[in-house]
Amino acid sequence: MGEIIELKGKGVPKVGVYICHCGFNIASKVRVDEVVDFAATLPNVVVARSNKYTCSDPGQEVIRKDIKEMGLDRVVVASCTPLLHEHTFRKTVETGGLNPFLFHMVNIREDVSWVTDDGDRATEKAKALVAAGVRRVLYQKPLEKRRAAIKSDVLIIGGGIGGITAALDIADSGKKVTLVEREPTIGGVMAKFDKTFPTLDCAACILTPKMTAVASHPNIKLLTFSEVKDVSGYIGDFRASIVKKPRRVIESKCTGCGECANVCPVYMPNAFDENLGMRKATYKPFAQAVPNVHTIEKTGTSPCTYTCPAGINAHGYVALASAGKYDEAFNLILESTPLVATLGRACYAPCEEECTRGELEGTVRIRRLKRFIADRYYENHPEPEYGPPDKELDKKVAIVGSGPAGLTAAYFLRKMGYQVTIFEKEPRPGGMLRVGIPEYRLPNDVLDRDIKNVLALGVGIQTYTEVKSLDDLRKKGFDAIFLATGTHGVRKMDIEGENLSGVVNCMEFLTSINYGKKTDLTGKTILVVGGGNAALDSARAALRLGARKVTIQYRRSRAEMPAFPEEIDAAEKEGITISYLTTPVKFEGEGGKLKYVQSVQMQLGEPDDTGRRKPIPIPGSESIANIDMAIIAIGLMPTTSPWAEQLNLNRDGTIQVDPETLQTSLPHVFAGGDVVLGPSIIVNAIGQGRRAAHYIDKYLKGEDLKATTFVFRSADMVSKHDVLTRSIITHAMSLPKKELPVDERITNFKEVEIALTEEEALKDTKRCLNCSVCSDCHLCKTICSAEAIDYGMKEEVIDVEAGVIIVTTGFKPFDPKRISAYGYGRFPNVYTSLEVERLVNSSGPTQGEVILRDGRKPERIGIIHCVGSRDKEYNQYCSKVCCMYSLKLAHLLKERTGADIYNFYIDMRTPGKGYEEFYHKLLEEGVHFVRGRVGEVTDWAVTAKEEGKLIIRVEDTLLGMVRRIPVDMVVLSVALEPQKDADDVRRLLNLSCSSEGFFLERHPKLAPVATFTDGIYIAGACQGPKDIPETVAQASAAAAQALSLVDRGYVELEPNTAYINSELCSGCHVCIAICPYGAITYNSEKKVAESNEVLCKGCGSCVAACPSGAIDQHLFENEQIINELEGVLSYV
Amino acid sequence: MFEPKIVAFFCNWCTYTAADLAGVSRMKYSPNVRIIRVMCSGRIDPELIVKAFEKGADGVIIGGCHPGDCHYQNGNHKTLRRYKLLKGLVEQFDIEWERLRLEWISASEGEKVQRVSNEFTEQIRVLGPIQMKGGRVVHG
Ligand code: FES
Questions:
Q1: pLDDT band at residue A1 under the 50/70/90 scheme
Q2: Which chain A residues contact residue B82 at CB under 8 A?
Q3: Chain centre distance of CA A392
Q4: Could you tell me the pLDDT band of residue A4, with boundaries at 50, 70 and 90?
């Protein structure tokens, strides 16, 4: 013994030092005897020895003996890492009669002998570390291990064969298990297999009984379609938040009968079949899925539906029509508007502008499909199938105006049971639809049939009635009024000659035509002034009345023209001249009758307050032309002047309303449609009608209008990008326009657009990409007798407490698109191994028949091993199972097709019970084996024999030559990779990952299912590629470890907690803010901080933060560390 | 050749485990680097850093888990904030702040332990022995 250190009040502790050879592991670099001699000179050391294996029984016995015989007070062992054997030696010391925390372990293997080249330097470093250990241990204090209770429940994340096995093992022992799976069913990848190697057992036959056992086990709580979103706590006391995604089917009610899937009109690629087959939006991944319930896949609202200002479910009716359910489609539209056929013709279809198919070959013709649906329905149903509502309310509502807004509001209010009367000043209802849109776009009888949808409910209508006084209506007993009188006034031009006979406004002109007053314009020259739809309609109508020449003058350029482009195109096609940047300045006549127009050219100046560039006349550009009639269509405006006294109006005459509730300055009066919006489109008016009905109902019920907002859409719009990238999209050309030829239409008012045939309509519906997947058509809800469908189902958060967590999250197959030379995704007949698993599966998309994507049956098949494995570019590791599953697939493919099979391998790796025998069986079956990594797969034929085939080019390393082998089908045996979100799970659970991204086990040999986080175990392919038996074995191992913890009922915790010296504490609160566990509180009486050892996890952050040096950490006291430093820095 | 003395404070959960991995993988690195294990990088008290230099270290490495991965939620965030202050602190003693290095090393990054140790040893070798305030040569 060298120097002697006396501890204040504790005497002179005696230290024993034990240096381990660890066989050759340490001794080959570190001169152990020299270190022993050195140790003997260290302060307070009374004995220093070496041992071949200190951790062996005799090695430990030496220490115990020395403690007893020599009265050691402290022990230092210098050997391997404390993470391996600290525990062992603490036990040794304890059984020797010393407090286990009076021991310190020095790492001279991982930290010295294994990482140092030079023997001298290794020995020097070992000495320094031993010196550090001896100095440190002197200041260590006896401590008690803390105990914490362990909750007996176990949480298992991942419901593949690993999770299933662990769950059953634990549940059978009587403990409770929560099993979380993110897919709608448990079973994992194994459920996709037809057979398992090498026994060729039917995978489903061995897996599904276990799956059902899980579902029916009283001790297992199964949460499918759920994901763990948050985990907090520690071993023995974990808390997890699990998000149960809305399945839209109530699990407890669903009987799994499958009626919903039968009626569902939406087809999607079936991910369970690796997208080789189709499934419905309402689906069960496979027949034996557990739980045996359906799931409705809905990813948001489709862009078409989302966009519709009237809230009409465009995706829904297109989907219904695609299934030939035309009546259902009609009724779905009727849920949002009575004006089905009108919209099918005259709507400007904002939905089509948003259609995702528009990003590809062109939009689905949604409007024309609606017309098809309506026409077909009306053909069979000249009258509505319903009458007045069952429920009658006594409140009365007056609707002023029978355009789209008024009709819609009347329709919805009457359906609620209110007594509704419409007041219309014209002879027939329809508003702008009646008088503003000529019959070649919207025939009168079509509009009449739409209006029947409103009137059949028992809505009263008074035509020829103009409402001047709102008070009168009130006096007549109307409890609420909805004003929807549109914009039937036409702005004046305020130029000379405007009052000449022959100058008319477009509304007068169009109204008279629509009421059948067909003025003969044969041979006449007509001028239409304006650039809106009314101008276009007037011009096209004039042409049909026989006009010789029709010219439109518009004062801005085409880019600013408010009319819809399709209308402009149609007008031009029909021979109408449009003069842009031109406007009349004067009309001249003879005998009070119009004769000439003087026009001027314009140029565009600065933008005005509408943002459009202001037209400025070009001086000297005037010209004069001969005309017979001028139709003024420069702007429509509301005629609200009679109500100016009673309501607040805007400057342009529109009515001021609350944009949300549509309530005017008079509480009982609401207004909507063009009279509020100014000239707009039909669907906007319908949307306003619906909104008004909603709020008038609330008003009449005396509810607070501001309590809620009114929205049609149930969910956010799906991202088109997601839709376009989500899976296989088949190419489909869009429908061409179908119209009457120009010369057949310009002489009459026949409908220009020709209806779709059923065949065309069906074809177009099939182009729908089903953006949101479920179309909200509601067929499944109608059919489900168990009442299990719940479209409004919300995400549910379930909190689970558990003592132990087992992670069995599995793997993801390598994406072979990354190796472009193998042509996956380019050549349809290149398959992944998992796709072939489905193809040979009797319950797969082809019922087990091997039919290629091009419909052929393969006669020659090449199976390429190691795709994405054993390749530095992708994954350096061997995926371990590919050789065997390739052999299995070779066997199955041969059995099913009789084809010639080639396996291209680098090395055959078949260790395992019966595996090598299986390989030999395949050799005997006549499967070919070519040794060599495939260079490329191409369709480039050089001989006639290669024509139409895929050619595998490979260097046969046994023959020493490059070969070209033509085949019909290529199977890529893809690698097993960590799950895409493995890193998220790692963070969630505080695990570590290996550099490949698989979860890291605590020790590769001795703790293969434990992790560095106590109480969390891993099993199966999430830890690294492995096959089913290995996964099952690991799962059982994890279950056993979990049970052993849970059964003991408590864990021993390191006593490395922080403690506060209250004499030094200044009460500054810094530590309180810093502690992540809330383990420190302020004692306001004593004005000091106090720490709670039960909550403290022992990180020591507070020690570092305390400005007064009042906090220290057991086992890691500053004094101990500083003494360790001293040793580390002593060079000898 | 000048052999610098380097102390490495490694957190138990990521960086110390990474050092074990470096050992298991037999990655050789400079024996000048000597590891002291603490539970979390957040435990590194400024006093320990000052003491390390005072007792003769020519360089100090603090190793912790990557941001977001700390076993104790956010101990390494505190370390990062403290690191900025510590650099100022050592400069007050006329010690170049480059002698104090902070590294995030995860349990799978054994190779990073090797790289950082070798790099840092070379860097300190170039800086030379430490000189403390007042021209007092502490060692070297
Ligand atoms: S545990 Fe590694 S930095 Fe906190």
A1: low
A2: 1104
A3: 44
A4: confident
Ligand 1 atom closest to Cα of residue B15: 2
- The enclosing H or E element of A318 equals helix A314-322
CATH number of the domain located at residue range(s) A15-144 in this protein: 3.40.50
* Residue B76 pLDDT grade (very low, low, confident, very high; cuts 50, 70, 90): very high
Mutate to test the pocket of ligand 1, among B35, B37, B40 (most ligand atoms within 8 A of CB): B40
Please enumerate in sequence order all residues whose Cβ is within 8 A of that of A54, keeping only pairs 6 or more positions apart, or say none.
Answer: A18, A19, A20, A22, A60, A63, A77, A79, A89
Asked if the Cβ–Cβ distance from B28 to A116 is below 8 Å, we say yes
> Is residue A662 left, alpha or beta, with left meaning phi > 0 and alpha meaning psi from -120 to 50?
left
CB contacts of A1000 in chain B (<8 Å) are: 107-108
User: Which region among A400-404, A696-700, A734-738 has the lowest average model confidence (pLDDT)?
Assistant: A734-738
Task: State whether residue A1095 sits within 8 Å of chain B by CB.
Answer: no
B43: chain A residues, CB-CB within 8 Å: 1099-1101, 1103-1104, 1113, 1116
Q: Does A1057 touch chain B (CB under 8 A)?
A: no
Strand extents, DSSP E, A266-416: 267-269, 278-280, 282-283, 295-296, 396-400
Average pLDDT over residues A864-871: 96
Query: What is the value of pTM for the model shown?
Result: 0.83
User: Which of A992, A1023, A1118, A1130 should one mutate to test binding to chain B, selecting the residue with the greatest count of B CBs within 10 A?
Assistant: A992
- Contact with chain B for residue A838, Cβ under 8 A: no
Side-chain half-sphere exposure of A394, counting CA atoms within 13 A:
1
Q: Which two tokens stand for residue A653?
A: 């005459």
pLDDT at B132: 60
Report whether residue B105 contacts ligand 1, using a CB cutoff of 6 Å: no
Percent of chain A with pLDDT over 90: 84
Q: How far is CA A422 from the centre of its chain?
A: 46
A85 has a chain B CB within 8 A of its CB: no
Put simply, the answer to whether B31 touches A1000 (Cβ < 8 Å) is no
> Tokens 């019920």 map to which residue?
A701
pLDDT digits (tens, 9 = 90+) for A627-684: 999 999 998 999 888 898 889 999 989 999 999 999 999 999 999 999 999 999 999 9
Nearest CB among A122, A1097, A1099 relative to B31 is that of: A122
What is the domain partition of chain A in residue ranges?
A: 15-144, 154-245+800-809+987-1052, 489-637, 813-978, 1057-1113
For every residue of A201-217, DSSP letters joined together read EEHHHHHHHHHHHHHH-
Domains A154-245+800-809+987-1052 and A813-978 share a fold: yes
Average the pLDDT over A688-706 and give the result: 96
Q: Closest partner residue to B78 among A992, A1074, A1098, by Cβ?
A: A1074
The CATH code for residues A1057-1113 is 3.30.70.20
Residue in chain B closest to A232 (alpha carbons) equals B73
Domains located in chain B, CATH noted: 6-127 (3.40.50)
User: For all residues of chain A together, what is the average pLDDT?
Assistant: 94
* ipTM of this predicted structure: 0.95
pLDDT at A8 over 70: yes
A121-135, B92-106, B126-140: which range is least confident on average? Answer: B126-140
What is the C-alpha to C-alpha distance for residues A214 and A203, in angstroms, rounded to an integer? 17
For residues A1013 and A1051, the answer to whether their CB atoms sit within 8 Å is no
The pLDDT value given to residue A727: 65
pLDDT higher than threshold 80 for residue A3: no
Whether cis (ω within 30° of 0) applies to the bond prior to A269 is no
Phi-psi region for residue A926, left (φ > 0), alpha (ψ -120 to 50) or beta? left
Tell me, what's the pLDDT at A541? 94
What is the fold, at CATH topology level, of the domain defined by A813-978? FAD/NAD(P)-binding domain (3.50.50)
Partner B contacted by A1127 (CB < 8 A): no
